[in-house]
Fold this sequence. Notes:
Elements: H1 2-6, E1 13-16, H2 22-33, E2 37-42, H3 45-57, E3 62-66, H4 72-86, E4 91-94, H5 110-138, E5 141-146, H6 159-181, E6 184-191, H7 200-203, H8 206-213, H9 225-234, E7 246-249
Parallel strand pairs: 1-2, 1-4, 2-3, 4-5, 5-6, 6-7
Helix pairs in contact: 2-9, 4-5, 5-6
Amino acid sequence: MATSLALPLAGKVAIVTASTQGIGLAISRRLAKDGARVVISSRKQGNVDKAQKQLQDEGLDVTGMVCHVGNAEDRKTLVTKTLERNGSIDILISNAAANPAMGNIFDTTEEQWTKIFDTNVKSAFFLAKEVAPHMQKKGNGNIVFVTSIGGYQPFELLGCYSVSKTALLGLVKAMAPQCAEMGIRVNGVAPGVIRTKFSAPLHTSTSIAEEVLKQVPVKRFGEPVEVAGTVSYLVSDDASYVTGETIVIAGGMQSRL
Length: 257
């Protein structure tokens, strides 16, 4: 019993996408510290190798592989190899996202729009669809989509990206009822501006950062580790009666559609 309390995710197998840096890396570290066997992934082998070594050197049970979530074969391989190595999949954290467009939303090209939605929404759903039958076998699975505060209050310079994150809020709600029948809980987290390489345009420019922080009551940017704990809670038994919800982690920023 003591071991279970100390390691709430002991015996669980987790996949985390886009997990070699930033929020994804922090989530992977936290899930592994909480007892899960974690499979990390990224588009580039070098990034996977670096993150895997870093986490393994910390004594964590982590393996990694290349996965471009926009590629159906890569998604299938990620699931297949995880099952071969670990025997099951209990947790999926869908964190991969793309944003090739910044500026006026009307300047977004059709190609950029397609890229953003293919990566941020379509790929997230189809990876969850790939994983769900394997979770159903155990009747105790968890899926968490990493959306964004921009899904509630769109960032002026990130219009298309923000809309894609709004779609993920809807995906959580749409999937939850059917997944509940399969023994799977589906939730989301909506980070605010977290200090990562991905969000650098919002916090490295002094003028932009000042404008963004006007919307943040705690008057600072978040750190990846501040997202990871909430994700670990959502996939643990402590959240066994929570599904179809998205938890905002944004320092008090407004979060109503």
